[in-house]
């Protein structure tokens, strides 16, 4: 029997019985039965067998399945030792979905697709050996972290590590054109190249002149950003990795750009085909001034990027609009158009209701919290990456006159349930940071020199978290409660502390820091002031109990770290980001990211197999009431949860809002006496609440409609850890 000839299997039917109550109870035991049947009927008969581990590695190398170079960095006796350790840990998947996802998407198979060449511990061993780069102690530490699922490398890293024929390890990219045809052309080429090698691409269009702005030396006017959006969408559709996946891109525009209305209109269902973008994600960068104008129901001015750059000498994105707004309004040399701020706010809400877009980036919040010299002007395809960029200029031959810096994302995630059970929290995080450091050190995207340079200078990584809801439910804590929010804050404070410790150690070991470290708030120590003057440890008895046995730094520990960082620096410009982590959270038997579950028994439609049911991790009679659907939770609780983490996360987090077309009674007090249907007002209130709470970015708005459909669902596999 081979994988192409599977007959009379029972696991799909067993899994589907989870959705059929018996005696008014969920048949959770059917998932365990489906898992056992899957291993017995699918995996074991189709796993290629070898006489020894050496024979197996020789086969994988000789047949171009694995790279030889990283294996040769170790004595083979050590590889046998790491395998002995991994086998002794007796790893078992906890759900049918976890095993199914791993073997369907991650396990190495023979070229004819007939047999598996890997089990889970094989992929763990290869990841550990590859990312440790010959360091036996680190390899053993990484094997320990990954097999116990405390650490999960991002999908591109976990999937591609060690493979001879592979894609890149990085998850996604951020690039920006400036206001001329040469950089626009270079950006389209970059989008083609980056989409080809893997990962989603975020592109900032705010610097481009608006429709109607003048073009030098030509009697005519610019066409604005929408035609560029169409060119980019076609580029992503074309460069789709040989049809393996849809090319994915997100475009960013400042809310004060004159094309903002046409930008938003391009995503509407009824938009003219000439301007409609179907697959491109839309995102809006929103300065504080917009919230102020909308709150006061004032008129707002949209400013010509061409004139603004001419007057200020920097591209439009690099001007502080909140600070300069009144000066720009008063400046007759800047062309401007006037619209009503609240009407634009409503248009944004209407589109979010219809499509889930646009993402919202509170750009002033982002830059106020940014400890790095420079300006952040955009985010990525999933809205969690926030790094400084410098614009490039390109000559007529498409060469860089000035090579700026753009961004690649090197992601990984902690599994909150399992890291909280780590014998040594700090040691675990150190291993994770070092694995991610390998990815940034060995990433060399030379097809886009600005990405290559940005990565080489910043050494940035993004360590995040998944499984918050499963941790809370397992410990019988209600999502969004005071205790849950307090726990979230302490957990991410710890993650911040230990990533700083690890980055500082690496800087001292290598005698190297990220570019412009000396101009950062880390170098002058000011970043640490809030930690050295305030106690961020647990306050309530319940949260103290959760952290019992785990070292929690106090002000003196932070002061010691501050002195070490001021002395030896940090290797990584950025360290943390919370991605949406979709499919790989199933392998971890974890709820995704920091948001609540969608349903206690999730229904997933898998191509070629149909529906698969996934019970929430640790679901039982005891935890049942703690697993409330995101669609039935006040989104302010979700915002408060993310805000508690955001205080300690130097980049951002993919925060999805979950709404119902018909709002459950009593969920939002402002609905009382009004319609129970979701309105644009609801979304406007929540966006303003998020802004007031210090949230840097809002990802999708997902709406569950009255006919049981979801609007705004388009899971990004690039950043989904």
TrEMBL record:
Asked if the keyword Coiled coil belongs to this entry, the reply reads: yes
Q: Which InterPro entries match?
A: NrdE_NrdA_C (IPR013346), RNR_1b_NrdE (IPR026459), RNR_lg_C (IPR000788), RNR_lsu_N (IPR013509), RNR_N (IPR013554), RNR_R1-su_N (IPR008926), Rrm1 (IPR039718)
- GO terms of biological process kind: deoxyribonucleotide biosynthetic process
The protein's Enzyme Commission number: 1.17.4.1
Any one GO molecular function term: ATP binding
Q: Which GO terms describe its cellular component?
A: ribonucleoside-diphosphate reductase complex
Swiss-Prot/TrEMBL catalytic activity: a 2'-deoxyribonucleoside 5'-diphosphate + [thioredoxin]-disulfide + H2O = a ribonucleoside 5'-diphosphate + [thioredoxin]-dithiol
Coiled-coil residues: 327-354
Q: Which UniProt keywords apply?
A: Allosteric enzyme, ATP-binding, Coiled coil, Deoxyribonucleotide synthesis, Disulfide bond, Nucleotide-binding, Oxidoreductase
Ribonucleotide reductase large subunit domain ranges (all copies)? 558-580
* Superkingdom of origin: Bacteria
Function as written in the Swiss-Prot or TrEMBL entry? Provides the precursors necessary for DNA synthesis. Catalyzes the biosynthesis of deoxyribonucleotides from the corresponding ribonucleotides.
Query: What is the protein name for this chain?
Result: Ribonucleoside-diphosphate reductase
Which organism is this protein's natural source? Apilactobacillus kunkeei
As recorded in Swiss-Prot or TrEMBL, the protein's gene is named: nrdE
């Amino acid at each position: 029997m081979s994988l192409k000839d599977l007959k009379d299997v029972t696991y799909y039917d067993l899994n589907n019985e989870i959705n059929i109550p018996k005696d008014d109870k969920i048949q959770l035991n059917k998932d365990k039965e489906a898992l056992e049947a899957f291993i017995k009927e699918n995996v074991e008969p189709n796993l290629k067998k070898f006489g020894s581990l050496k024979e197996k590695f020789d086969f994988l190398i000789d047949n171009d399945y694995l790279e030889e170079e990283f294996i040769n960095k170790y004595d083979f006796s050590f590889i046998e030792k790491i395998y002995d350790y991994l086998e002794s840990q007796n790893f078992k998947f906890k759900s049918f979905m976890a095993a199914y996802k791993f073997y369907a998407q991650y396990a190495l198979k023979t070229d004819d697709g007939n047999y598996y060449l890997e089990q889970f511990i094989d992929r763990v061993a290869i990841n550990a050996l590859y990312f440790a780069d010959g360091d036996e102690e680190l390899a053993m530490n990484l094997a320990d972290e990954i097999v116990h699922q405390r650490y999960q490398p991002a999908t591109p890293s976990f999937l591609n590590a060690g493979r001879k024929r592979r894609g890149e390890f990085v998850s996604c990219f951020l690039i920006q054109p400036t206001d001329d045809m040469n950089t626009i052309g270079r950006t389209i080429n970059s989008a083609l190249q980056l989409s080809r090698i893997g990962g989603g691409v975020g592109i900032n269009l705010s610097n481009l002149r608006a429709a109607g702005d003048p073009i030098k030396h030509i009697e005519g006017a610019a066409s604005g950003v929408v035609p560029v959006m169409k060119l980019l969408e076609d580029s992503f559709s074309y460069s789709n990795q040989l049809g393996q996946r849809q090319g994915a891109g997100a475009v960013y525009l400042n809310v004060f750009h004159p094309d903002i209305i046409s930008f938003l209109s391009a995503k509407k269902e009824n938009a003219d085909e000439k301007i409609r973008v179907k697959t491109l994600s839309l995102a809006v960068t929103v300065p504080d001034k917009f919230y102020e104008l909308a709150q006061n129901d004032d008129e707002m001015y949209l400013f010509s990027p061409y004139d603004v750059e001419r007057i200020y000498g920097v591209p439009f994105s690099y001007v502080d609009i909140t600070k300069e707004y009144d000066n720009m309004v008063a400046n007759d040399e800047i062309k401007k158009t006037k619209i009503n701020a609240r009407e634009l706010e409503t248009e944004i809400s209407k589109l979010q209701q219809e499509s889930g877009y646009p993402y919202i980036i509170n750009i002033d919040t982002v830059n106020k919290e940014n400890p790095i010299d420079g300006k952040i002007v955009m985010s990525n395809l999933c809205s969690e990456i926030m790094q400084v960029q410098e614009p490039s200029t390109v000559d007529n031959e498409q060469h860089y006159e000035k090579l700026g810096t753009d961004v690649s994302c090197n992601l990984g995630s902690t599994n909150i349930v399992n890291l909280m059970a780590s014998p040594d929290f700090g040691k675990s995080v150190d291993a994770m940071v070092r694995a991610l450091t390998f990815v940034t050190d060995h990433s060399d995207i030379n097809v886009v020199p600005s990405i290559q340079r940005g990565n080489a200078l910043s050494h940035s990584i993004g360590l995040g978290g998944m499984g918050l809801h499963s941790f809370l439910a397992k410990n019988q804590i209600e999502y969004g409660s005071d205790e849950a929010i307090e726990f979230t804050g302490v957990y991410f404070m710890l993650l911040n502390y230990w990533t700083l410790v690890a980055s500082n150690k690496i800087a001292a070991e290598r005698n190297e820091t990220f570019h412009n470290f000396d101009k950062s708030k880390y170098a002058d120590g000011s970043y640490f002031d809030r930690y050295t003057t305030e106690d961020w440890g647990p306050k309530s008895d319940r949260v103290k109990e959760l952290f019992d046995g785990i070292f929690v730094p106090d002000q003196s520990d932070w002061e010691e770290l501050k002195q070490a960082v001021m002395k030896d620096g940090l290797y990584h410009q950025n360290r943390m980001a919370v991605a949406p982590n979709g499919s790989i959270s199933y392998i971890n038997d974890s709820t995704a990211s920091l948001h609540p579950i969608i349903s206690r028994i999730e229904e997933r439609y898998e191509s070629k197999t149909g529906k698969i049911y996934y019970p929430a991790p640790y679901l039982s009679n005891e935890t049942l009431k703690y697993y409330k659907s995101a669609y039935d939770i006040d989104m302010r609780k979700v915002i408060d949860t993310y805000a508690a983490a955001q205080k300690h996360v130097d980049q951002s987090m993919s925060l999805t809002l979950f709404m119902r077309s018909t709002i459950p009674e009593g969920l939002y007090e402002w609905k009382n006496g009004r319609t129970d249907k979701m309105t644009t007002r609801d979304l406007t209130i929540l966006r303003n609440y998020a802004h007031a709470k210090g949230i840097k970015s809002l990802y999708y708005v997902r709406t569950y409609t009255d006919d049981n459909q979801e609007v705004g669902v388009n899971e990004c596999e690039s950043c989904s850890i």
